[in-house]
Amino acid sequence: MIIDGIEFRPIKKYGINIPHYFVSKCGKVWSDKQKKYLSIYENWRQKKGVGKPKCYEFSMTTEGKPFWDAGHQHKPKRKGSTVIEFRHKLHQAVKEAWEPYEDYLNTLNREELIVLAKESMLIDHKDDDVSNNNLDNLQYSTPLKNSNHRKLWVDKVL
Questions:
Q1: Which residues pair with 83 in a beta bridge?
Q2: Could you read off the pLDDT tens digit of each residue along the chain, which spans 158 residues?
Q3: pTM value?
Q4: 3-state SS string over the chain?
Q5: Pairing mode, if any, of strands 36-37 and 29-31?
Q6: Which end of the chain is more exposed for a tag (fewer CB within 10 A), N or C?
C-alpha cells in the first residue's frame, strides 16, 4: 500500500495481522479505518521528561477473537464487547512488518538457534505445584506460554 508516496505494510502482533493498520519503514503508522496517520507517543522509563523516552508507542483497536483464540488474554474494551484496544511499540511494528522474525531465524545456523532457544527457555511445572519436582512433572516452556498459566502462589507451611 502506498500513501503520500510512502510504502506501508500490514502491522502484526504475535504473528497476527491487525486489519486496517499499516506501518512504513520510517515509522509512520496509518489507520485505513480512520484514513489518517496515528499519533505516536513516548513511553518513559521513569518520570516523564527525565532522560530519554524508553520507546515510542501507538494504540490500536481490533477484534479480540484472533488473539483470544491464540491464548492471549486481552480484555474487551467495554463489557460485552468483542473489540480490544492495546498499545504496540513502534520499533516492533516496523521490524516485524519489514523483516519478520521467521526470516531472521532462517539466517541462523543450528548452533545459533540452540543458543537463542537456551536464552529464552525456562522450565515449568506441568501441574503448577512448585513442590512437585519429579522429572515427569517438569517441561521446557517459554515465558509467553508460562505467562498464560500464571500460578497462584500460596504460602505453605512446610
A1: 63
A2: 999 999 999 999 988 999 999 999 999 999 999 999 999 999 887 777 677 888 999 999 999 999 888 888 888 888 889 999 989 999 999 999 999 989 999 999 999 999 999 998 999 888 888 889 999 999 998 887 776 544 433 333 33
A3: 0.73
A4: CEECCEEEEEEEECCEEEEEEEEECCCCEEECCCCEECCCEEEECCCCCCCCEEEEEEEEEEECHHHHHCCCCCCECCCCCCEEEEEEEHHHHHHHHHCCHHHHHCCCCHHHHHHHHHHHCEEEECCCCCCCCCHHHEEEECHHHHHCCCCCCCCCCC
A5: antiparallel
A6: C
